Amino acid sequence: MAFVFRFQQILQICLHEENEVKTRLAQKDGQIAGIKAEIKKFKDEYAQALDNKILDLQAGNMTKVQMYPAYLARLQRAWEFNEEELERLEKQRQKIVDELMVKRRSRMTYEKMREKDEAAYTKEMLKKEQKKLDEYGNRIRKSAGDNDDA
Q: Does residue 2 lie within any of the structural domains?
């Protein structure tokens, strides 16, 4: 008779839930990476605009120079908005990580129970097998002893 873990279905559910949380974590990491790229893009554009403003000032293009404050303010607002969004996403990510730890702990508990039950089952099967071998050996000795008497 093969070993059957009594909580196998619960263990499967735990594995499934843990994988779902891992998927959500990967999606959140992707969102965070996207926001970080956006922030970097806005900061790079801001630095480039400052450099261009200096060049336009040196060239005397006052009409272009007058447009820079609004453009720079828009870029700064955009990157500040994205930094707030990044903060929000990182808080969500932390909640997902906490949930993953709970799911992982639950799965590991059932896996340890499975290992313990399987070890007990194996030990019991070895005892039964040894008992059968002993009985078989005793029968052989008895029959050999009966033959010697005859």
A: no
